[in-house]
Amino acid sequence: MLYILPTTFGVVIPSTIMEKIAVQIDPSPEILWGNEATPEAGRTAILAHNPPYVFTTGHGLPCVTTVQDKEPFISLKEPQMSSWCKEGRNMDIVKGRIWHVHSCWCGRELALVMVNKGARAVFAEDNEYMFLIPHNNKIDIITAAPFLAEYTTDATMLSGGTVREAQAARITEYSKWVKYFQAGEGSKLQGAGLAARVVLADKMIASVHGDTSATIPGARGRSTFRLNLPISVGGSGSGIALLGLCAVVALAIKTGRRRA
Amino acid sequence: MQVIDKVRNLLIHGRYNEAVGLLVTYSPGTYRVLVARIINMLRTYPGYLVSSNGRVYTTRDLIQMLQQGRWNRVLAQLLLSEIELMRMKMGR
Hints:
The complex is a heterodimer of chains A (260) and B (92). Chain A has 260 residues and is of the alpha/beta class. Helix content of chain A is 32%, strand content 21%. Chain A starts with a strand and ends in a 9-residue tail after the last strand. In chain B, 70% of the residues lie in helices and 7% in strands. In chain B, helix 1 (2-12) packs antiparallel against helix 2 (16-26), helix 3 packs antiparallel against helix 4 (59-67) and helix 3 packs across helix 5. Chain B is mainly alpha-helical. Chain A binds chain B through residues 9-10, 13, 59-61, 70, 103-105, 108, 127-135, 142, 182, 190-198, 200-201, 204-205, and chain B through 12, 14, 38, 40-42, 44-54, 56, 59, 73-74, 77-78, 80-82, 84-85.
């Protein structure tokens, strides 16, 4: 499957986390990282390899999802909404795939149009997706929690789950993390109260559109992943080593489905 | 509680100026409590919040905005979370 992981304007944090998860859940991930995560490279990869599932992250508006340097990747022609949407882009490559468009606002309009244009299903966000950035450039559980919930979507899909099951798993994980910071072990952490509210806000905007019975044909990925936290911001190509005491976070997602 | 439900619905639909206006007008006590709770939460994390379009707000920025009665989408999302937690506590 294809993962488009830009690294500019703060998006390096979700991209760092997804890069580490993708190699665990996906037996053959194609990752476009940083300066490779351009609209042109994304389009080329999709046309060349025809992936049935695409994960893309970056800043967004109802009319657009962007990638590296906030370049529009998939967009509607709505110049009155934003200069990012001065032209429609790449709607011709959405057909026949399941998408996880992890960008703010895309669930309001772009995801629906993608489904109308033939995308089998689109996981999206309906409003501003928030997360916390620490000062020391290390991703800890306070920063990672929303993404650990959100990327349950991908783990469920990659292991053969339906869109409906992935959405249910996503929401369940969000709820678990709210509880973790409100009343569980995480309630003792500095910033726990704020983290709980950020995760809850992200849970409330997590939407899905299209065919909820859809699956990825021949999916043979893993439903679980582990992140040894804290991790340094940046991809595996950045040469930054994992440091510090590790908190192993293992999420076992029971889909009740056998691997193909 | 009816006012809170209307405020919640407005926030879910992204109409945060209307939501805050309704709260201030019809339930000013609740408004002050919610704002105080959000400010207290923001004070627990000496870091940053990131919203869309590359805008990064420090928690200090957000506290100042709230104290000045200025709202943005990030604060609106936090208000929605606060209301949701209140509802969860009341079993709704």
